[in-house]
Each structure stands twice: as C-alpha cells, then as structure tokens.
Amino acid sequence: MASVPAQVSTEGGGLATAALCAAVIDDDPHRVRRLVAILETRAGVEPADADLIVLGFDRLGREERDEIARRREDVPGTPLLIVVEQADSKTARDALAAGADALVLNDEAGTSLGPAAQAALAGQISLPHSFGDGFRRPKLSRREKQVLSLVVMGLLNAEIAAKLHVTESTVKSHLTSCFAKLGVRTRSEATALILDPEGGLGLGVLAISTTDDDDDD
User: Fold this and answer.
1) For residue 90, what are the contacts with CB-CB under 8 A and spacing of at least 6?
2) 2-133 domain in CATH 3.40.50.2300?
3) Among 50-64, 107-121, 179-193, whose mean pLDDT is lowest?
C-alpha cells in the first residue's frame, strides 16, 4: 500500500497533513509497481487500511465494470480510482456508472495520478481533460435532433429520409455528425446513451416533431 498526502482542517482552522493509504490492485505486476512508485514519490509507504483503492485495467469492458461495481459494493465509502491503458468518454461514463470516482490513463499517470487521488479523496469526480466533451450536453442542430428521434423510435435510414423528405445520404450525413457529437459509433449505442435511466442524456436532446421550421437539412 502506498500513502498519499492530503490536507485536512484542524479545529483551530489550520491545516495539517494526514497520511492516507492507497491499495493498488492490478493483475499486471509491472503496472502495480509503477503506480505504487508514483504514489510513493509523494509520500511514504504505510501498511494500513486503505483510504483509497486504485484499480488497474487494460481496458474497461463488461468484466472490468463488474469488478468496479463489486468493489463499490464491498467498500461503499472508499474512493475508487481507475488506471486504465485504453478508454474513451463512453467507457469512462460506464466506469463512473459502475461506481468509480476517478479515472486516469496509464500514460498520464506520472502527472495525473496524484491530483486524481487527491480529488477522489476530497469527494470530487476526476477524469482526463480529453474526455470532457463526452460529458457535456451535445449541441445538436434541430435536424440532427429529428434524425436521432427517429433512430430512437427504430426507423431505418430510408424510412427516416421519407419521413423528413430528405435524401438517404443526407440522413447518413446527419447520423455521422450525431455520432461524433455523442461519442458513439452505432445506432444502438446512441439509443442507449439517450435512454439509459441512470446516466443517459434523456429525451430532452431529441426533437420529436418532424416539422422543419428552419432551413437546416
């Protein structure tokens, strides 16, 4: 276990440094040693109950999300920090939904692990800056919202084109733009992102009416 420093308020209003211990858990022994070494450079090592749990993964698939959820259930009050080799805004959202409090890319651990640990210990969510756009409400044009609405309803491109009185190639163009803004790759991923009852964008990003009141084709 590696301890990381944190500042806590004393009754007199001053600041004191408390030794906080992090349990680093990873199947890759080389990554464990590296992460522990990064934490050790910011404080000493103390064998104590963990104040922070660091989980290392190669990727964030279903198995890894299940592991995060199990850890969250086992230690509901302990921050979980994920270090992963590969991730994007969608898999980061999935990790947060599973119970993670912070996520660091392994390549950025040297500079980001310490601050992310401090943020998690302070009760803050921490993610790589590059994932920011994937967590903001996407800015969709009215036509893009209309196309997405019909995708969520299960219509195919040809049916959407007929409904909106546009060409099928125009529908494909709008879908390509929508997918890029949502950070997804398929119709099913877009639908899941919108309709997910816990972390979804909600129906507010759609425009159910197919009446076009602007000139955006």
Assistant:
1) 134, 183, 184, 189, 193
2) yes
3) 179-193
The model's pLDDT over 6-16, given as tens digits with 9 standing for 90+, comes to 433 333 333 34
**Is the CB of residue 195 less than 8 Å from the CB of residue 94?**
no
Domain residue extents for the chain: 2-133, 137-205
Q: How far is CA 183 from the centre of its chain?
A: 11
Contacts of residue 60, defined as CB under 8 A and 6 or more positions apart, other chains included, come to: 82, 84, 86, 87, 91, 92, 94, 95
Count of alpha carbons within 13 angstroms of residue 98, beta-carbon side? 25
Q: How far is CA 58 from CA 64, 83, 94, 106, 170, in A?
A: 9, 8, 15, 9, 38
CATH of domain 137-205: 1.10.10.10
Can you read off the two tokens belonging to residue 174?
A: 């709008």
* Predicted TM-score of the model (pTM): 0.56
